[in-house]
What we know:
Two copies of one chain form a homodimer. Chain A is α/β, with parallel strands linked by helices. Helix content of chain A is 34%, strand content 18%. Chain A is built from twelve helices and 15 strands. Chain A has a ten-stranded mixed beta sheet, with helices on both faces. Chain A is globular. The first copy, chain A, starts with 13 loop residues before the first strand and ends in an 8-residue tail after the last strand.
Amino acid sequence: MIAGSIDDEATMAIQSTPETIQVNGTTCEPADENDRILSIQSHVAYGYVGGKAAVFPLQCIGYDVDVVNTVNFSNHTGYERFGGTRASAEELSSIFKMMDEIGLLSRHRLLTGYIPNAAALEVVKELAQKLKSRNPHLIYLMDPVLGDSGKLYVSQDVIPIYKEMFSFATIITPNWFEVETLTGVPLLSLSALRNALSILHKHVQHVIISSIPLQPWLSKVLPETMQPPASTDNQQAYLLCISSSRTIGTSSHSAVHARLVPLIAGYFSGVGDLFSALTLGHFNPSPTPSDSKPHSATQTPLSFAAAAALHKTHSILEFTNAFAARLPPEDRTSTDDELDAAEPVRKLKRMRGRELRLVQGQHILREEWREGQGKDLQFWDGFWDSV
Amino acid sequence: MIAGSIDDEATMAIQSTPETIQVNGTTCEPADENDRILSIQSHVAYGYVGGKAAVFPLQCIGYDVDVVNTVNFSNHTGYERFGGTRASAEELSSIFKMMDEIGLLSRHRLLTGYIPNAAALEVVKELAQKLKSRNPHLIYLMDPVLGDSGKLYVSQDVIPIYKEMFSFATIITPNWFEVETLTGVPLLSLSALRNALSILHKHVQHVIISSIPLQPWLSKVLPETMQPPASTDNQQAYLLCISSSRTIGTSSHSAVHARLVPLIAGYFSGVGDLFSALTLGHFNPSPTPSDSKPHSATQTPLSFAAAAALHKTHSILEFTNAFAARLPPEDRTSTDDELDAAEPVRKLKRMRGRELRLVQGQHILREEWREGQGKDLQFWDGFWDSV
Lengths: 387, 387
């Protein structure tokens, strides 16, 4: 400890006005509890998934983040082996209870990610319900972490609990597989996509489908202005990010925005966790939360936040991918289950080389975000037509 | 997840030279495992002590930090009540074991702080021993967290283990009370201070005493150039930070540097954790680790790192204190055990208002540090004379 414990008057020059504090020439804004996020997700010692992919980026853009760890693992499960423990429902409950009793529970912003099992998720559900009942304007981004690319990586019994939690959520950020799992609708056509969004919007005002591969059915219905550039290599795959905001208290359809980004080949972990965190970090609803009409000519608060999150996440991925491409050959092998099985260390090295380069790319995270830089999501005119 | 799992060639423009990678115009340095730190200390959901005070600052200055949590609490113990659990020795052991097996253990830099009990500390000791035996150039900063201001806040049985661990440590950063506890020498005179440093240097090359109150005995022996400015308010208290580097393999005395900073009144938690992290982050030993001669005319690598850490820590404290001073009166009460006992929420509010403002003051953490800005530690000429 450097400071002693003598407690009397402050000793250095402080000049202040009602709005700012000046200490030795540096401005210090007064507390804004709106700049505090309670984040509940996994922790790994090494690498960047869950809280390790979410907390530092949110701190970089100015949030105090309260960090509750749902697991404490050595590394992410992509390495196939890991050590450590899951937090029990009782542990989580005791942490939330104490934070509540001594007035440390964030009233404004809540972020939840990977929760290991149904009992723990029930505890998080109760917390979300409590916070929402205390503050109807709570901004709760729920990332319903279930799986990816057709594979569940949680137990089945969390699915109904996530559905029950929809009514407390402000924003949800499922990937395409999670949308299918939560709605029961395979995303194979525009009408299926509309159907899935309608189901989710019954309970949640703001929905982002973080990534849908640009398959032929989607390519066919995508507005011309959102299509890949004509010059594109035919082999290049794309992912579509869709934001959909419903105006509360009306029967009108949601405002849908979308943007295509090139798929960066290779499996990178923590990308969804980073995207969700940045979405919450950049989300600033209108003063009246029921008002989700465009806050500029063409954007909603959600499409604005999604654009910032998509741009920064994609830039971090490019940065990471470029790093991985420069590693010695043995650290940047391609995914090949047979070769991996024959030589287990092969996969470990590849995984290590693909950990997100958040620290080295922190200038990307800290970029000030404005509309109109050519990276906005575009309004999908006519999305709901002919329904 | 945004990225899919198709795995073939990278898709974006990468221009590279042997030393750097350029992605879309941004430079990306190749991996440097020397820029990775394994940090082992406490975790709290709310507020900034232990890992929460150490990790973000190290990330801001460019380190990948691997984070192993020795406890998972709701908040720091200054709030008097807290929820959560301590990691068992078995849990810590399983995490280290897995990290080792899959090649994720940092080879270059290790930081340890609060370890809850002797069994857990034994596990950390074994780890430090293993890392040191694998890499004799390991930079291990051990903060022997025992207590402060005359009070132990760990159990007695960790003390002998910390002493056994000295031989693996590169730098230790005890406060004055921890120096007294570890050496058995009450710091009441210059010769006692010399004696304590000699005892610690028997095992450790670099010692920082992070803060000693400027009591009359110390004031009397302090070189004139280090004394408080003559204009100073007589009521202003000061703390001295001392760095002491021994040259390995010689019988000569250590090079001692020091700097005085004004005591900022009030009890702030996490300050020592922040200071230790920044010291390790700014420590760059000479290419030959046995060479700790001044790397400039007047500085050692240790005095350089201590100056950076002291300046940044003190600036964050000033920033935090200025913030606390602007809170409503009920959130910035003075320390008064009787009033606190009568109205428990009084202390909670004060604690909350004094959480370090690391996020809001991150520009301070990121400042590039150079010698000669008037904030260096000064060489204490004649410190060992007349011994």
